[in-house]
């Protein structure tokens, strides 16, 4: 697309090490930075020659084979960063939040954005699977920063009679204030020992997690596989 080509050309020109350029190339870049040179109506031939010359010079500059591959990798990384920034809107969390009472429980559900997924773990100390699930959710919270992960003791919800030890640990998933999923005795879905990857696979099976966050892209050199 024309817009992508123009963006690539601009990035290529901006990436040039101007100190290492010859005087002729520096002058060419100066001219390219102001491409809308004015010409009189009677100077049509001069304008056409200028445009043809600039087009050929620009082609030679931005298609330097020795430098193109490195510049292309940087361009790909920048595009990925821009795309990630556009898609990663909304609040970020990144940790497992401890709710202290029923009021905080309701606020965590009802006062979030309609686009935010809220996953709440109802637990109690000493209940099999609760500690492992809290550890797993702490790991997932760091990887899925746009998801709000919470935990609250059943006795602190104000509705402890509804969360007896027989149904713990329980996972409740909300979005837009609505309950999407209710998993009681959820640890029974896993092996005796389970980890964050097991819980992640389980939640993904029900489509409850977004796409995994892209890793931060540094400015240094990376292998080709890092940008493809």
From TrEMBL:
Localized where? Cell projection, Cilium, Photoreceptor outer segment; Cytoplasm, Cytosol; Nucleus; Photoreceptor inner segment
Q: What are the entry keywords?
A: Cell projection, Cilium, Cytoplasm, Nucleus, Phosphoprotein, Sensory transduction, Vision
Offer one example of a GO biological process linked to this entry. Answer: visual perception
Q: Where is this region: Disordered?
A: 22-44
For this protein, the record's CDD domains field holds: Phd_like_Phd
Q: Which GO terms describe its cellular component?
A: cytosol; nucleus; photoreceptor inner segment; photoreceptor outer segment
Name the Pfam families for this protein.
Answer: Phosducin (PF02114)
| Residue span(s) of domain Phosducin | 1-221
- Asked if the keyword Phosphoprotein belongs to this entry, the reply reads yes
Q: Which InterPro entries match?
A: Phosducin, Phosducin-like_reg, Phosducin_N_dom_sf, Phosducin_thioredoxin-like_dom, Thioredoxin-like_sf
Family to which the UniProt record says this protein belongs: Belongs to the phosducin family.
Q: What is the name of this protein?
A: Phosducin
């Amino acid at each position: 697309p024309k817009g992508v080509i123009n963006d690539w050309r601009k990035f290529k020109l901006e990436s040039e090490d101007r100190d290492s350029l010859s005087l002729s190339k520096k002058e060419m870049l100066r001219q390219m930075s102001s491409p809308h040179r004015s010409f009189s109506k009677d100077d049509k031939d001069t304008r056409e020659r200028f445009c043809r010359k600039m087009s050929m010079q620009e082609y030679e500059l931005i298609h330097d084979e020795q430098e193109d591959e490195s510049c292309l990798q940087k361009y790909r990384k920048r595009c990925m960063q821009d795309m990630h920034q556009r898609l990663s809107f909304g609040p970020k969390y990144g940790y497992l939040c401890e709710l202290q009472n029923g009021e905080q429980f309701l606020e965590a559900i009802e006062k979030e954005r309609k686009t935010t997924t809220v996953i709440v773990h109802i637990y109690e100390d000493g209940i099999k699977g609760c500690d492992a699930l809290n550890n797993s959710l702490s790991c997932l919270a760091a990887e899925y920063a746009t998801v709000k992960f919470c935990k609250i003791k059943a006795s602190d919800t104000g509705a402890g009679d509804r969360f007896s030890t027989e149904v713990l640990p329980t996972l409740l998933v909300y979005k837009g204030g609505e309950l999407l999923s209710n998993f009681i005795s959820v640890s029974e879905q896993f092996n005796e020992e389970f980890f964050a990857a097991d819980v992640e696979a389980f939640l993904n099976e029900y489509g409850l997690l977004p796409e995994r966050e892209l890793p931060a892209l540094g400015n240094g050199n990376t292998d080709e596989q890092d940008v493809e």
